Predict the structure of Pyruvate formate-lyase-activating enzyme.
Amino acid sequence: MTTGYIHSVESFSTQDGPGIRYVVFMQGCPLRCKYCHNPDTWQKNKGEQISISTMMEKIKSCQPYFNKQGGVTISGGEPTLQIDFVADLLTACKEEGIHTALDTSGYVKQDEFKKLLPNLDLVLLDLKHLDDKQHQDLTGVSNQKTLDLIKLLESERQPYWIKHVIVPGITDDLDKIKELASYLKSLSYLKKVQLLPYHRLGVHKWEELGLDYQLSETEPPSEEKLEKIKEIIKQQNIKVEIK
Ligand code: SF4
């Protein structure tokens, strides 16, 4: 019996994909994003150990709320760290006719990710920085796997959204945004870009875990800056929203 470790669930989210979403937050993440608001998901074998059947009972009890236009989103942490559990959960959701989405940093091996594709309706891909050096500085890892995953999604004709956190001084440089926009323009199965303003809601968790929060001096971006960034992306005929 496949089991997985989950951090928590949210039964009524409007932030994690189309419509109302039942979100499963998985434990474990190989990245260490400076702005992470869920550092308590980083350890892999913590949280609640749960079977697919118990998880599905929970999901199905909420199905009347999300059934029409929403669905289930598997998030984290980095959910692909528990690839077998995620693959089985996606299969079980599709057997119930539930729309499925996976929120990932893209830090995953391609052959593992391919296991998920048959039962995945939408990928929410967090592209944290297009510049590899700055990506490494922000997250601790290279963006190569994420860029490779975009190529895979394109070749598999898999619809996906790109999420991009706007952090003043790190990801809000307008020249870099122009480079990002022209890269995004070349993608065929990209359905939407979501710009997520940096916030500090998770800082207390860093303190509780005794971790050093390096962005304590960073303020959220201004609405004016966000609108400028949105406009640059929109000019490339890409659907874009600020979340
Ligand atoms: S990928 Fe997500 S969970 Fe992992 S460190 Fe980054 S923001 Fe946190």
